[in-house]
Amino acid sequence: MSGADAGERQSAAASTHPLAYVRRRHGWSYQDLARVIADNARILGVPMAARREKVWRWEHWGVVPEADSQRALARALGIPSRELELRPWPRWLPAHGGMPDGLPWTAEGSFTALTALLDNGASDPRGFPIADEQALLDAIADWDAAGAEGTTGAAGSAGSGGAADAMGSMGSSAVDTKAGSPSAAAGRGSASAAMAERWDEPVPGTRSGRVPRQASAAAAFRDDAVDKAVAAAVVDGPVIDWLEAGVLGLRKLDDRLGGAAVRHRVEADLRMVRDLLHRGQHERAHGTRLLRVAADLAQLGGWAATDTGRLGAAQRHYLTGLRLAHSAGDRSLAVALWGGLALHAVIAGQPRDAVAAAEAGVRAAGGTPPAVRALAASRLSRAHAAVGADGASRRAVSEAERQLDLAERESGPSWLYWFDAAELAAQTGQSLLDLGHAHEARPLLEQALAMQDASYVRDRCLYSARAATARALTGDLEGARTLGREAARLSRHCGSPRIADTLDALKVRLDATR
CA 29, CA 501: separation in Å to the nearest integer? Predict the structure, then answer.
């Protein structure tokens, strides 16, 4: 392979433009795609040269293809021409199939979105594209509208009876709900038609012709009344206690080992909870708790995906989790999910999206415990720092500090154990680094490192790398190398591409000073 070919392949794999995902899915090179477009344009009566350079410009320079090229590509992909008008480039490309869009904000809609996530949105590669700004704004508008309808429960409540009743009566028809049909999804600008069709399919394992022999034989002896009683006894309080404890355990494993170590377990547990919800025969309170467990797992799954560089999967976990948290009536979890989306957008280099998501989190935080409000303010600070809003970032930090002080007198959710003074110092230090204030950031990052629990290996590794960066920026190159070596040593014990990227950037900075 020539150096030019290798460079092209590397840059293509790194691209997160929706068109890059479409190419990779079909196995097309830039030249292949140019030829496909030219061939289809010729069928449409438009002569066109097959030039790979124009495909490169679409992906890497943000150039919008001319109308004839878009029509030809849509024909090749089987996309109706009306989609090009409904969803301007690149939103009509079939690249956001796992997005939970075009569904009602009900328990059934949440279940359908969860099924869609698990079917084809959880295990995508690192290059799967991130939804554009408008899709996130649509999600925020949906969330605000659902909250305005008064269907969201109070913080920490057991959830609305309506949501639990819907889950209890859902049964095996949940995924066939009209709300998840292609016709319902077609009204939403950012919903994929292909995904809408998948939403209308039954849960895997329940399709005709695929019923296990054991189930077929059991049907001959079934007593529905007894069956319902047994199902209700199977999904009882202790079972959900174990599920809730399992999520907390996975969070603590993530602290030590990183997102790569837990993401497959998170997905497996999400499937288990999805299947329990699918049975639909349990007490009302248990249905709400199952929805809350699913939201908790989706939040952790989003974080694990972010930590492993799978940013498209992370976004879909967070957005699906928001539906689940809404159905469970858990505002605190919703705040964590909005905060995850905000931090995800910062990492993905989408600062305006970060501010929009963080502000949604602040709105959702009303009435939640102080620790949750502190988390929302901290994420807002990071988002403002990403857009260079120095004053707004500092005001958000002050609010986070005030709320964290109040949290000492009022406990927050058990899953928020990790958000403490060390974490706030680390986030504040990173915000100051982003704003270009390395001298202010350095003592905060080193304070976070000194305060951090030794068992939080992944976080200590990240804090060491950030503190090393601050030292390098302030002229302490030897101190930066010492902390860099410590971060590299710790990184061997936790799989996190995010840490690898941070260490690579630090190495480049230090090598340039030799």
Answer: 27
